[in-house]
């Protein structure tokens, strides 16, 4: 095999590897913080916790209430970071639970670590300028 052929093969392989890296970075690793294309974009409350965590267990009913009460104006997602450690790494979780508030465009607006009451969550959305309306 000639040197020119070897160079071409190495160049093609290098481009292929670069292409895979770029695609991997652009492809979401999870549905977290992604709004469904078929629905209107909504602000997102992302809760990152674990099933064994006491404060996380205390947050569960609050998050369910928010999900039901504000359906149509707020998306609420809960991710168990023990089952999805890549998500914890992606969002640089230091303490669980961590709640991350995203606007409808997916931009992080605020982050809280530890237990967060329902009233405090609703107040925070108001402070961030996001108007939530209760589902009918």
Overview of the structural elements:
It contains 4 helices and 4 strands, in the order H-E-H-E-H-E-E-H. It has 136 residues and is an alpha+beta fold. It folds into 2 domains: 30 residues; 84 residues, Glutaredoxin (3-Layer(aba) Sandwich), CATH 3.40.30. A 4-stranded mixed beta sheet has the order 2-1-3-4.
Descriptors:
about 140 residues, alpha+beta, Glutaredoxin, 4 helices, about 40% helix, elongated
Strand order of the largest sheet: 2-1-3-4
Q: What sort of overall outline do the alpha carbons produce when their principal axes are compared?
A: elongated
Number of strands: 4
**For this structure, what is the CATH class of the largest domain?**
Alpha Beta
How far the N terminus sits from the C terminus, by CA atoms, comes to 72 Å
CATH topology of the largest domain: Glutaredoxin
Q: Which spans have pLDDT < 50 for at least 5 consecutive residues?
A: 25-31, 33-38
Strand portion: 15-25%
Provide a concise account of the structure shown.
The chain is α+β, with helices and mostly antiparallel strands and 136 residues long. It has helices at residues 3-26, 54-69, 85-90, 118-127, and strands spanning 44-49, 75-80, 98-102, 108-113.
Spell out the blueprint of helices and strands.
Elements lengths: L2 H24 L17 E6 L4 H16 L5 E6 L4 H6 L7 E5 L5 E6 L4 H10 L9
